[in-house]
Amino acid sequence: MALRFAQDPPDEVDAAASKLSLERAARFLAGRTLTERQLRRLTEDLEDEEQLLARRLKPVREAWEAARGRESARVVGLVRPRHFQVVGQMAVLVQQLSDLVARERELRASIGEATGLPSAALPDAGAEFGDLVDYNSRLSAWARRMRQAGALR
Question: Is the pLDDT reported for residue 7 higher than 90?
Fold first, then answer.
């Protein structure tokens, strides 16, 4: 099956897939001509075989998924302490950023009070982040998400 990428013109991809399908059909038929009845019977046989293989594969798939789940849990358990340590370091930086955003806002407000200029005369450098005091800020949302995940206390 051909992969379709955004830069591939759809008609070229479709044409290549159709050509591949026709080539496979020709190899399968190997010059034979089948009647509708023969094709129907062949289709039924293939569907029966597919169902049989699916039933046989089910316990193997389930065992694989269980083993993969156990291994995933084992690896996460090994990485979790280091991850939480890194998240803790990030939390220190988030707190520092929150404090700086508050200081920058206070500075803009004090200039406005002293000069009578609106605080909008200087850009709000923390608008995209907000601070940890603002429940709706990105910083607060991050902190809540990390606490809910157990990565922060």
Answer: no
